[in-house]
Amino acid sequence: MSGGSYYVPASSKWPVLSGLALGLFMIGTGVWLVFDRAGYLIAVGALAIVTVMALWFRDVVRESRSGLYDEQMDRSFRWGMGWFIFSEVMFFAAFFGALFYIRVFAVPWLDGEGAKGISALLWPDFVASWPLMNPPDSSVAGPHEIVDPWQLPLVNTLFLVVSSITLTLAHEGLKEGYRDSARNCLVLTIVLGVCFLVVQGVEYYEAYHHLGVTLQAGIYGATFFLLTGFHGAHVTVGATILIVMLWRLQKGHFTPDHHFGFEAAAWYWHFVDVVWVGLFLFVYVF
After folding, report:
1. Contact partners, residue 108, CB within 8 Å, separation at least 6
2. Domain of 29?
3. For a Cys-Cys bond, which of 178, 190, 224, 257 suits 173, CB 3.0-4.6 Å?
4. 84 and 122 assigned to the same domain
């Protein structure tokens, strides 16, 4: 695109189809949660979402490689990705906020502390502690042990920290025109991300079958799997994006001056890594 004019995309069916796919997924999720049935709707909705996203991004890539985008469009993509990551920050901020509220306010209240200490009348024998090994309601069994942060979680922390370094090296290599170096560092980043997911799977198995840390193990189990599970889902999405970037790099889609798709993927991956550092500190260590 030349002349400084702004590219206006042609009428697209993808926004409508993505809305329908998301609606189908949410309906399936609601039916499954309420009635414990129609789980197939979730699978169909998820497949529809992935399909629409793949075809939509395919069109965007084609438009970009056709030279239709100018500097203004590039700024639009950067602002869009920035706002998307900000929304993800708020997403995790809500869950971290819930964790801090439970630990700092709700659990001490049940032990008679603070402005709402009258809550202790519900379970007068309850003693506040975190991790909450003995929930106040005796019908809820707490975990037998907690996950040791200095074993598998520490290994996963090293995986993600190193992956951020290798991805940065890949980005710098791409900017300098060292395509082989960029490719090798990106492959290593993907391998480290997959290793993270494998180790997390082992950790979940150990937690469920040997430590008693389950979704039914009181508020500690619920918050543990809520935070780490959503993060694991984001790592899966991030690794998938990086695999697509590797394919595009192999196809020669990126140049040292034009590679925002790669850069946006790097932003997302670094965000996921930063979130994990917060999880490691406030879910596992403190």
Report:
1. 114, 117, 128
2. 12-64
3. 178
4. yes
